[in-house]
Amino acid sequence: ATGGVRARERPMGLTYLAAGVDGPALGSSDLDACRLLNVLLGGLGRTGAPLVQDLCRRRGLAQEFYSEVLSLADGGLFCMVGAFRPGRLAEALEVIGRELGRLARDGPAPAELEQAQRYFHARQVCLGDMPEVACGWLGREVLLLGSCPTLDPPGALSALRPEHIADLARGLFRGRRFCLGLVGPTAPAELPGGWAGSVG
């Protein structure tokens, strides 16, 4: 055998979309609220988040959906990633846009926010059982900031209220266009060129 790479072209069964906007940097006063917004939208592996359940279970529009926050010393990124059923992307974007609009307008319900806070705290505890993950996450922040941060200073996340999340969501989403990455079968009418305009 002479080695090399073999590739076979075949149709893709899903449409993959990544949508991102500028997020808070490390040390930003918005970072705690952004971490909770991330949990509310399915980040940190929260498959039980209402939006994830709506897209993947109730409506069957997506096979997978989650959000993510990446914060660096001089800037950050808030992004959402999904694998959508062919021909259902436009409908899925409407559902996502309505949820972003709700959070920007009203913030989460108090019980919804409390669930997100409990989930975030539980995930922090889990980091103690995964030192390689904790070292990678905290080590990056030590290198960038020159000090070891506390992921949740005592009471910081617990003190946040729905209006704090709404303020952050308005700043992130209203009047701004997402940077989009799209791969897979998509009809021209589904291309989300003006999608950010639906977030109100």
Q: How many helices?
A: 6
The overall strand count is: 4
User: What share of the residues does DSSP label as strand, in percent?
Assistant: 15-25%
State the major sheet: 4 strands, antiparallel
Alpha-beta content class: alpha+beta
Question: Taking strands numbered 1, 2, ... along the chain, how are they ordered across the largest sheet?
Answer: 2-3-1-4
- Overall, the morphology is globular
Q: Give the SSE string.
A: EHHEEHHHHE
User: Radius of gyration, Cα only, in angstroms?
Assistant: 18 Å
In angstroms, what separates the terminal alpha carbons? 59 Å
Helix content: 40-55%
The stretches of 5 or more residues where confidence is low (pLDDT under 50) are 127-134, 196-200
**Mean pLDDT across residues:** 81
What does this structure look like?
- There is one protein chain.
- The chain is an alpha+beta fold and 200 residues long.
- 40% of the residues lie in helices and 18% in strands.
- The chain is built from 6 helices and 4 strands; from the N terminus they run E-H-H-E-E-H-H-H-H-E.
- The chain is globular, with a radius of gyration of 18 Å.
- The C terminus is likely disordered.
